[in-house]
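Q: What would this complex look like in 3D?
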Amino acid sequence: MIGIVIVSHSQKVADGIKEIAEEMNHGKVEIKAAGGVDEDDGRIGTSAFKIKEVIEGIHYIENILLFVDMGSAAMNAEMAVEMLDEEIKQKVWLVDAPLVEGVIAATIQASITDSIEDILATAMESRDFQKFSG
Amino acid sequence: MYEDFLIDKVYFVKVIEDLAQMIEEKRDYLSGLDSDIGDGDHGINLSIGFREVMKNLGDWQQKDLTFLFKKMGMALLGKVGGSAGPLYGSFFMKFAEQAGGKEAVSFVELYQMFKAGIEAIEMRGKAVVGEKTMVDALRPGLDDFTKSIEEGLEPKSAFERFVAAARQGSEATIPLVAKKGRAMRLGERAIGHLDPGAASAVLILEIFYNNL
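A: Here is my prediction, written as structure tokens for the whole assembly.
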């Protein structure tokens, strides 16, 4: 079992990526969305506190992968992790991969293997996914 | 000279009130700068953050400066939403730490607070001078502030030099191509525009100066 936290400026984007990934999830991944600001009012942005809370909500999972879209999402993800208790902090991986592709690649790989190294490597390979040939 | 120049909580509370007022007045100006080369929410985001600060300032000022500015940093971090949240949030949280739980600080301690805060912004944003960010204002500002302290300039002049160098650094972002943030994608289209983060940083420093 791994955890995946999806951080996007848009709550809808985070929820939507979770929705796509859940289709490939065979109970091996706890997928959580942490999109938008604290208020859940649809405003575009990210919140370190919201991300921290979402991670704490799945603190019992051994490996938690964080995927972010850009800019403040990355900074707020870092701050969220810094604010975590030491024992939870050690479980978190900030994954420098594309958000949609990375989350889905990690979810699929988690259905095949329990190796966190494999799952992280697959997520990173999604940087090179080719969508059109030629 | 610097030990005798004490800056008390009355000063800092007034600064925070003035910052909140300034942010309201400059909200559309800052969002406008951001519309030119970013996502257009810098002013509105800061305004949401500072409204949250003002809602709580009455309670927070009952305690010491470390408590006050830590709470302020956390509020900006939580409410701002854009990159200014973690950046100014980190600034005020480090600023707070250096106040050492006191009710008043000396001028050298104030300098140490700014130094720690600005270094936190550089670390958080991983930015250096020349990338068209608030660091373009803050780093040269801090360098001149440091020199002024070393040369023993009297407090108001030292701070004036801090703000002047920051302002000059901010204006120097106009001809730059951006290397950070969404403006980075614009390439040469960012040329000719003042960086909104550098602009807000200078406005903030001016409030600290005007109240000295």
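A: To summarize the key features: Helices of chain B lie at 9-37, 42-60, 65-79, 84-98, 107-125, 135-150, 155-171, 196-210. Chain B has a mean pLDDT of 96.
Q: Very helpful, thank you.
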